[in-house]
Design a protein that fits this description.
The protein has 15 helices and no strands. The chain is mostly helical.
């Protein structure tokens, strides 16, 4: 009779956790869709809400409705933190210290911020996101984080396809077409890259339904290529390659390295002796059909040089947490660059402008420590959750070199943050593939046999 009670209690706890996971996915995904997505994006010029005629740019101001949605997300995270059950907290090592230093420094930057009000609002958003990530990390093991990421990014993809079909902008056969959906194609590329990585990690370590994961990976990969987001495509491939190299045998690893080196050298040699037409075709392939936009890569250099001049004025402390891009700075930089601009197209440079070298160093140290811990867990006890956390960090580090999205508050950074924070709920690596989830205790009335 006792065994039957325990089985019933475990089934009830598992059912409750599945419902809670579904609620968390819908709430977090829904909030960030409401805050950062637009069904009309594919009809905008350059996929952005500004006018090319007068180069007017719409700066992100306060929005009470969006703020309330993010506050609700933070309250939900606080509820998950205080809810019974979940994983046990272990604040050991340097990771909690480095992350705390970053948060404290970002909070202190209000004292010297160019726009204290803006910094306070952005800090409030950061607090809501941290609360949500902490709650999600405590209540759900790594496998569930992968399911949440895959489910919501797949939902974003489906909504984006439906939106473009309804607007008549879904034309993948057109040479200039880029799949945007409900966000800028570069942002959509990041979402689809995370979807691909989640499916790849699931297929790599799953015991069943592998064919479904691989099929989904193929579909997501096609749409990732349709975004023509070069940074996201390259970063996703490298992140998956790092995971595969860490989890394969040494013989296969060195064989792969030698083969890739041979192909690379052979490609260089072929390019030297090939005709100009072949070189042009190869370049077009590398540029994902966006050869007319090739100047965008080198065009970032003048932007970075201009912004580094601002960074040298306040190298250590920065301009205050996310308060550099005030209206004055937007106008000055845009006028100097001769096109609308409100980001550095480099998350590291934006962080440098925001919290200076001290804050940027604390952030990078946190990422480095987390990468090391994920790699240790992956080698000792591989599993989809740990593998996904490693892939997200590698992808984020590479994507941040050319984009700013992984440095701002969105669904992807929430999931990445939850994966990193889950390291706080792990003890030393052992033979279990994932940290064990402790089901909440359920008292059942005693019934006579």
């Amino acid at each position: 009779m006792s065994t039957a009670k325990e089985t019933t209690a475990a089934e009830l706890a598992s059912s409750r956790r599945r419902r809670l996971l579904l609620a968390a996915a819908i709430l977090t995904g829904g909030v960030y869709f409401f805050v950062g997505h637009d069904l009309q994006v594919s009809t905008f010029e350059r996929y952005a809400p500004w006018s090319d005629a007068d180069e007017t740019i719409v700066t992100a101001g306060s929005n009470s409705t969006k703020g309330a949605a993010l506050a609700a997300l933070g309250l939900f995270g606080a509820y998950l933190l205080t809810r019974r059950g979940g994983l046990t907290l272990h604040l050991t090592g340097w990771l909690p210290t480095s992350m705390a230093i970053f948060l404290l420094w970002a909070s202190a930057s209000v004292l010297w911020s160019d726009d204290p009000g803006l910094s306070c609002r952005r800090l409030a958003v950061l607090l809501f996101c941290v609360l949500a990530a902490c709650g999600i990390a405590r209540q759900f093991p790594g496998r569930d984080l992968v399911r949440m990421a895959v489910g919501m990014t797949a939902a974003y993809l489906a909504i984006g396809i439906a939106a473009e079909i309804a607007l008549g902008t879904f034309r993948p056969w057109a040479a200039e077409y880029r799949f945007a959906g409900t966000v800028h194609p570069n942002t959509q590329g990041a979402y689809l890259a995370v979807l691909c990585l989640g499916l790849f990690c699931s297929a790599r370590f799953a015991n069943d339904r592998q064919s479904w994961y691989w099929a989904g990976l193929g579909v997501a990969g096609v749409f990732l290529l349709l975004t023509k987001s070069r940074t996201s495509c390259a970063a996703a491939v490298i992140a998956a390659g790092v995971l595969w190299m860490l989890t394969t045998t040494p013989r296969v690893r060195w064989t792969t390295v030698a083969t890739l080196g041979f192909l690379f050298c052979g490609g260089l040699l072929l390019g030297m002796v090939a005709s100009g037409n072949l070189e042009e075709k190869a370049g077009n392939l590398i540029m994902l059909g966006r050869e007319q936009d090739s100047e965008a890569l080198t065009g970032r250099l003048p932007i970075w040089q201009e912004l580094l001049g601002y960074a040298r004025q306040k190298p250590l402390q920065g301009y205050g947490f996310e308060s550099f891009w005030t209206l004055d700075h937007v106008e000055d930089v845009s006028e100097e660059m001769q096109w609308p601009l409100r980001e550095a197209h480099n998350a590291y440079l934006d962080a440098l402008l925001s919290v200076g070298l001290i804050g940027l160093t604390a952030m990078l140290v946190s990422v480095a420590i987390a990468l090391k811990q994920f790699a240790g867990w992956l080698l000792a006890a591989p599993g989809p959750g740990v593998a996904f956390g490693l892939c997200l960090l590698v992808f984020g580090l590479l994507n941040a070199c050319m984009e700013t999205g992984m440095g701002s508050a969105n669904f992807l950074t929430l999931i990445a943050g939850a994966c990193v924070l889950q390291l706080f709920f792990m003890e030393a690596p052992n033979q279990s593939a994932e940290p064990e989830f402790r089901a909440e205790t359920i008292s059942l009335p005693h019934r006579p046999c």
